[in-house]
């Protein structure tokens, strides 16, 4: 223990020293880039002492030392990760200092201090910005109590002074001018209209629909639809003018006054304890006709439009982000006021007016927050000009994913100045300090738990009287059970969710043959704290086997959240009844492999869904609910689909918070999980079974888009499988491919036709490209199914009697090899359903090269490029990918992410050392870049990013070139 404590002290001291030195260096270079280039003042960078200090500090973060420390008892594991990150940054900085020292030493007049211009030329501004941003991120992890270094305290102070400035910093004139290409925003794409006399005028409604469809997203209304509607005996008092309760009367008068006039300002704040009903009240006001009538009085003859948004931390990215908020608000406000669209998006509108139908179809609108903010301000401006008044109802500010002060400042800013008379904001949040400081004394507000006692009493009394057993018991009590209900409301302490769950428990555990006094016994057995109540329901009131079922259900829900989050598929963030039915059944492994496709009919669906609903309620005691999503448009909804597609959701955010963040809850559930259970394997199996037992009528067709969302989910679940002792991943994946092929209406005259082939580029490219050999195997490679691909390739190689004709060999030779598919996403990319390339996949495929089978080709194998049709190799594709990633800005400076530079450099190392990649290979020039050699690519990356991993690769390749490796025959066009 003493040795570990001593090692921990060494690591902490080294982290503090590395951070301090790194911040000092960033301060010096930052100031140099913001100094007048004509100033004679030199940059104060003492190279030898700085290098010696940094060397010593980094040495204290050696891998052996850090590994020996482990996570301190009773603490989170961040300090270990922080140490590794600091070591990586320290090594990268030493590389930069080494280069600067070399450059200074080679100058005709070496100086101990660099002049400012020289330092700026050697250390680019992009690099400095990235360093300061990275250090800012690391300082957040570093505990303030550990700032025992005066160097670190002073340096961190200088760093914090410009944290916001870094985000918006412009590139100074003397810095590296090489720009990085980024995805164009809607504003960028359409800011320069291209007139053409040949283009016909497009009907305005088509352009309106184009913009509105671009703003919309699938989960836009999901949260609002899932909010518990106000009980018919609650909340109506808000609009009554004759109230005996003084607190209610005061709230009613203030809220109605705010709705119908400008007297109380533009913002009204609803707050309350978790579970007190804030979302229900916000939704109630948003849709209530009396609230709408009061807003019309405020408008005084002007047009009034409303929009609502309900933040949801359990939902998609759009449901918890500022971009999602703005897109939803713009969509709602503009849908009813189409004439406002041209002035809201003037640049986009001007471009669309001169765009052909084909060009418009090819456009994909991207919506950065800045563009959406500009559009929103433009909408407010034109609304004022046209005498239109706007009221927004925004629920759950505490569920916003980001800095809460940012969202507060946004709402304050848009409602200030001239907007204040034309805009109202009804906001709700938990009573966190940041919201209390912003709203408690500055705007009219409502603390919901202070006025909800009457509503809670009415709700509880009505619900208890709705069941015959509890109604009869209340009738036998003095006063009809009023004292019991009052006691229940008092114990709830303003939390409506507690009342709801308590009533459910009384209904479940009391029967007509029990003594009425048992109601009191049950009520007083329930903890008043929500977390304690959840703990009782899940862990204390269930047997060990029942908790195991609860754990399995929870892990399935979490597995889907993880996969849907990766795929950016907000529509599939929660599981359907039909998915869960097949995922929970312990006896379905054999069925998944043996069943034939056969439609399931209503009675079977109804009975299965009813059994699932009972099971969910028993295991989670009402903490989960089955929600039927509303369908819009012309989608066909059968009664079978309505049942099967009901989705499992949390009854309230507090339930998810407890399950995900509650002290020890996840670990406790994981400890009860069956040892053989893997949620991702179960959900993969579930998809196979749902293919074989469809709810809708069985139909063979060629509409891959209909299947694609489910295919992407299943393949991604397959990639996440970790607990597969029975080796079921490969047979399940193959059965999925086999069943989808059964559904696929193949073209009899096309021997290469396969559903997976349609996932590779548009038809125009596929029609001219070389055949895709084994398209599903290639698709599995793109999805990163490392174990499956390696096992499948090995099995095909070892198949007895396998042979290929000369024609088949030629087809395989021309086709894109698996290695190329495996490196397609070598560097990070946003918004893709495919993962970044996996070193283990590369390692496995390279290991199988020893069999010399045509099934798996090596790095230097020449094939016909799928896009260009010209000669290519997997190695050249890798080099081109790296060069393109640099140009497009896909590689980070000071990359401490294990899935970043460290990952792709390992892949390149495997290509060189294990695969014998041609180190003399050459990439020919193209429209973007000049001709470059393999070593030239690494030199370019080394000089740009200064990463230690890239330096090692470069040195490794140089050594192999000197030893005569490679032939340099193949060049890529």
TrEMBL record:
Gene3D superfamilies attached to this UniProt entry: P-loop containing nucleotide triphosphate hydrolases
Residue ranges occupied by any DUF7791 domain in the UniProt entry: 573-693
Domain Nephrocystin 3-like N-terminal: start-end pairs: 252-430
Keywords: Repeat
Region ranges (Disordered): 165-197
InterPro entries: DUF7791, NPHP3-like_N, P-loop_NTPase
A Pfam family annotated for this UniProt entry: NPHP3_N
Protein name in UniProt: NACHT domain-containing protein
Species in which this protein is naturally found: Bionectria ochroleuca (Gliocladium roseum)
